[in-house]
Amino acid sequence: MSMNSIFTVERGGQRLDQYLASQLEPEGLTRSRIQQLIRTGMVLVNGSSLKAKYLLQVGDKLTVTIPPQIPSELVPEPVDFVTLYEDEDLIVLVKPPGVVVHPAAGHSSATLVHGLLHHCGGLSGINGELRPGIVHRLDKDTSGVMVVAKSDFAHQALASQFKEREVKKVYQALVEGSPTAQSGRVDLPIGRHPVHRKKMAIREDGREAVTNWRVLERFSLGLTLLELGLETGRTHQIRVHMAALSYPVAGDPVYGRKNSLYPEMAITRQCLHAHTLAFSHPRSGEKLQFVAPLWGDMLYTLELLRQAANA
Of 139, 152, 252, 297, which is the active-site residue? Predict the structure, then answer.
């Protein structure tokens, strides 16, 4: 059922959307949701639908209709992932390699979103739709820790933390080659590849992208395990930056060298793993940090590399 709220303005001069935010944000409605209600005629001022920037006058009567959440059009499906933490606002999970995060062309089923719809029984909705809120992504063949919003409130708060670079993101990657230094910083802008539209590239007119790296372990076969900290979160950032340094991620079919897979070392996908994620809880403000140990296939590869070195 729809829910109606009625307000009488006691002090004029405030924008319609700002006034409603002060009244409804404590009830769990975000500013974007309030603006959506205004745009779609769900907010009436003295019986008329007005724009968000309308300046209220003393005595104005506001009627706000909040329609029920719309079920997602996606069909829930069981999809494997590991849950690290869950409450009414968010879920922190470990995504396996081979799982696409969000439905897209060529991936209309068995995505992480389908699995979350199947797993989460308490979704409160994102902008009026009962679905999980994706605030960041991992590539299909990248494993590791992710946070997903279960409420509109958490979605907006987490998205703001990512935008303001308040989220700590640390990855581990096995790369080809052996850097001469023990650590470094890559500050190279990234944009869409001028020819291959599914690829990214270093471009002067691209968006700022900064990656910090340090060596964790070197192997005699010319492979190196790195820890990488992201200051920004561009698409394919680590893969593009490491390829630009001539140390592409091992097993990367897009940015790596031809024949970059090492079947004898059990490398069958890009060896990139989201290891650590830290952020503030959107409701309590508590500092949270989650660690996802390396996925089993990467652990096996490292063991084979260590055995080869000892041999």
Answer: 139
